[in-house]
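Saturday, quiet lab. Running sequence design on the structure tokens for the scaffold JK sent over.
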């Protein structure tokens, strides 16, 4: 797999999910500016590889910002460093010597059929497509977390964060895949489906039990910014401190004391597309609209006379995903950090 992240809280859960999944072989990770700046995304990603006990995995820094507009980040959503209330030790791992775009292109050439997963803005995938126009035919599958179709946006009334940050890149990506054969169309996990993936405190409690971690903690609104997890398992300590920030953020917007787990869901779909039902559509991105810029538009019925360039996830069972997340990450955390004998 070739990952492209803007680590961020939910990106970090996607990384843990993939590290906990034996069928996932991570070839390289592109660090893309989005939730936080490129350097912080790279540092967060390296630190997550340490926490997750990963072997050597290439992490390549992407462009400093979007293709055509200034970078906008969202520390209010993901915390000052992008990992919520959690603070991880700075990793001693070195960044790759090549750019994220070059890494995408060279890994895809070296590993035809590889699975691509984008959980951040599409800046570096767009740059990679400029280097290697054959990418749509080299990748075996591409899963994109981004967009909103028959569903409100989360950044403006109609657009979703990853597209909002770099709409020009998103348009270049969807246009480039217009030539892809049907089985190589990007599988798009937009807010329509990812906002049904509502993590709640009880999911963290189940994760703690699966990991054999103690105490089992149930974060709640009003605990305040200073509270920190005392969980015995370092993965659980991280998850409680990171996800609690996300709970507080959603609670602050009256969405409930929950967190939409966009990216680990997209990661699970990248490993097992059978988790979702999809519908083909032609997707394009509005660039010129004054109030609709960065809106993703799906032509489901061929009104534009263009071939479909995406398969959009339209159905899933969130409980199946959470069972898989808890089983995999819980068991992995237990194996990585076994509790000392009583
Ligand atoms: O809109 C949700 C997406 O934007 C997620 O990938 C989140 O991490 C942010 O990147
Ligand atoms: Ca993300």
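Result came back. Writing it out in full:
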């Amino acid at each position: 797999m070739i990952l492209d992240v803007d680590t961020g809280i939910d990106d970090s859960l996607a990384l843990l999910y993939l590290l906990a999944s034996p069928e996932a072989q991570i070839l390289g990770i592109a660090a893309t500016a989005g939730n936080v700046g490129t350097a912080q995304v790279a540092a967060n990603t390296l630190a997550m590889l340490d926490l997750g006990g990963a072997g050597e995995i290439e992490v390549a820094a992407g462009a400093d910002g979007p293709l055509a507009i200034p970078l906008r980040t969202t520390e209010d959503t993901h915390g000052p460093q992008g990992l919520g209330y959690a603070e991880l030790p700075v990793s001693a791992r070195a960044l790759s010597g090549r750019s994220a775009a070059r890494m995408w292109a060279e890994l895809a050439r070296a590993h035809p059929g590889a699975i691509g997963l984008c959980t951040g803005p599409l800046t570096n995938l767009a740059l990679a497509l400029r280097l290697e126009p054959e990418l749509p035919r080299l990748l075996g599958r591409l899963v994109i977390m981004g967009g909103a179709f028959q569903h409100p946006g989360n950044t403006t009334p109609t657009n979703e964060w990853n597209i909002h940050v770099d709409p020009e890149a998103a348009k270049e990506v969807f246009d480039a895949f217009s030539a892809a054969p049907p089985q190589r169309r990007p599988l798009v996990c937009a807010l329509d489906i990812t906002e049904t993936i509502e993590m709640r405190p009880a999911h963290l409690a189940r994760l703690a039990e699966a990991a054999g971690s103690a105490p089992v903690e149930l974060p709640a609104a009003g605990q305040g910014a200073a509270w920190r997890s005392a969980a015995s398992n370092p993965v659980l300590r991280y998850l409680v401190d990171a996800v609690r920030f996300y709970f507080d953020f959603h609670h602050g917007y009256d969405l409930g004391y929950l967190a939409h787990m966009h990216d680990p869901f997209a990661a699970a779909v990248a490993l097992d597309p059978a988790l979702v039902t999809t519908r083909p559509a032609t997707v394009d991105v509005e660039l010129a609209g004054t109030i609709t810029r960065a809106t993703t538009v799906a032509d489901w019925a061929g009104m534009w006379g263009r071939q479909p360039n995406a398969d959009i996830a339209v159905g899933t069972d969130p409980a199946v995903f959470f069972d898989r997340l808890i089983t995999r990450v819980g068991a992995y955390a237990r194996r990585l950090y076994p509790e000392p004998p009583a």
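Notes for JK: The longest strand covers residues 276-285. The pocket of alpha-D-ribofuranose (ligand 1) is lined by residues 6, 8, 10-11, 34-35, 119-120, 145, 154, 160-162, 262-263 (CB under 6 Å). Ask whether to fix the surface positions before the next round.
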